[in-house]
Amino acid sequence: MKIGITCQATAGGSGVLATELGIALARRGHEVHFVSMEEPFRLGHYEPNLYTHYVDTISYPLFKLPPYTIALSSKISEIAEEFDIQLWHTHYAVPNAVAALLGRDMLPREKQFCLVTTLHGTDITLVGSHPSFYRATRYAMENSCAVTAVSRWLSEETEREFQLSQPVRTIYNFLDAERFYARPVNRAALAGQDEKILMHISNFRPVKRVTDVVRVFKRVLDKMPARLIMIGDGPERLSATGVAKQLGIADRIQYLGNCENIEDLLPCADLLLQPSEHESFGLVPLEAMACEVPVIVTNSGGVAEVVSHGETGYLCEVGDIETMAQYALEILNHPEQAREMGRRGRAHVIARFPRDVIVGQYEALYEEVLERRAKFPHPASHRPGLPG
Ligand code: GMT
Known about the structure:
Helix content: 40-55%
CATH architecture of the largest domain: 3-Layer(aba) Sandwich
Distance between the termini: 23 Å
Oligomer: single chain
Shape: globular
Structural class: alpha/beta
CATH superfamily of the largest domain: Glycogen Phosphorylase B
CATH class of the largest domain: Alpha Beta
Bound molecules: ligand GMT
Number of domains: 2
Strand order of the largest sheet: 3-2-1-4-5-6-7
Number of strands: 13
């Protein structure tokens, strides 16, 4: 199959998932073309069957901001035509799905691809549901041949919020368990021998509640020597450093910025903290569990479909710093129990989120929409559930 993929190129779970999917599809023999603003985060190597194309924009004094979505749609259209792409898969609805639809409509009817849209989280919960994007997001979903979401929670949330005429299917995220595992690591660069390592990885947006990470860490530090390793970057980093200064613990925290090789860092951690306002899935806890690291997350959004409370980590209420700190101490004070929890975490990831099965679910979906198109060639009838 020839498959086009559009995703956010910046550091974030939706781009990571799209990249991993593209790589897996290319390795299964499909021809995969990425179209994005720049090289997607974590796609920094050559893969046979996989091609990247970047969107060109111009800056012109008349525009306050270059109209990226239009440039993206033109590029999608150009690449789809040049490489005869039948199936386009967009990740993160805004603006990618809208741009892909526009790109599809620029093509002659017989060259128009089927569009599959995968929702990742804030493209629905924060951005897509905002009045300035709502209609465009709904239009893109209604005119996609199929819409998927990365958790049952997000599928239900989307159906409730957007009242779509087609169901949103759940296809869970996955990872490469041969890349994320409890590999031998050298912790010495991150902490002293007697110090525990707590880790947080995110793009430091308000939804991640990074100051809660710092406050939980303070409660742990009151009881034992420890270090907090913060990976990623974003607007809330300043708030995190401010709170750490106020609490007098700034020197116990190290900020590593965006790192592509988190599989080398995660296994150093004694636990991972992700106290988000909500998470539609939680790819970072999944990566931590694959590395046998216990996780403390908030029970908000789809994370409960990923983390099993008391088995692979702990689910807490949003903002409940005291309980998060208690669970953190429980993990850190009982290393043997924590190791058991870590092992269960990895087994859970392998059993519930197997890469090959989940990539196969996407392939089956592509085949289904393409077959439907073959039967009912008009774009508006590509959607399952509609008469031809
Ligand atoms: O929706 C976002 O915040 C962006 C997105 C990203 O690119 O990081 O994160 C979402 O997609 C990930 C991959 O599917 C999920 O693991 C994250 O839980 C989800 N983030 C939120 O829902 C806040």
